[in-house]
């Protein structure tokens, strides 16, 4: 079963790229792979298991982890409006709570005035 495995690999130089290139080139089932040193991203395509690719690349001694799924499938621009919507909801709830508090504050002084007037008479 052909699939794509994406890893984040700590590579700081062309020697690091060469090490990853060497182990993936020897790995059985790999049809193609792409190594991006700027993004520290390694994409492997072929008849491979994700864990096997992970273990093979880890043998280079480079810090290796699976590429975060959220960043790959959901652009950051789409994630931000969702956070704003949550903030707006909280603000509306806070406004309603403040309105209730203000309404009680208006009632309480009137009651206090009513109590004060009879004692003055």
TrEMBL record:
PANTHER family from the UniProt entry: COPPER TRANSPORT PROTEIN ATOX1-RELATED, COPPER TRANSPORT PROTEIN CCH
Record's compositionally biased regions (Basic and acidic residues): 73-121
GO molecular function: metal ion binding
Name listed for the protein in its UniProt record: Heavy metal-associated domain superfamily
Region (Disordered): 71-121
Transmembrane domains' residue ranges: none
Record key words, sorted: Metal-binding
Keyword Protease: no
InterPro entries: HMA_dom
A Pfam family matched in the record: HMA
Domain of life according to the entry: Eukaryota
HMA domain ranges (all copies): 2-65
């Amino acid at each position: 079963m052909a699939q794509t495995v994406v890893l984040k690999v700590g590579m700081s130089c062309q020697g690091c790229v060469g090490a990853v290139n060497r182990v993936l080139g020897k790995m059985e089932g790999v049809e193609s792979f792409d190594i991006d040193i700027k993004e520290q991203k390694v994409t492997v395509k072929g008849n491979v298991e994700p864990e096997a690719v992970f273990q093979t690349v880890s043998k280079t001694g480079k810090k290796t982890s699976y590429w975060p799924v959220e960043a790959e499938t959901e652009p950051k621009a789409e994630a931000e409006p969702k956070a704003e919507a949550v903030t707006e909801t909280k603000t509306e709830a806070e406004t309603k709570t403040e309105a209730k508090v203000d309404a009680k504050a208006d009632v309480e002084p009137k009651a206090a005035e009513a109590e004060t007037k009879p004692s003055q008479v």
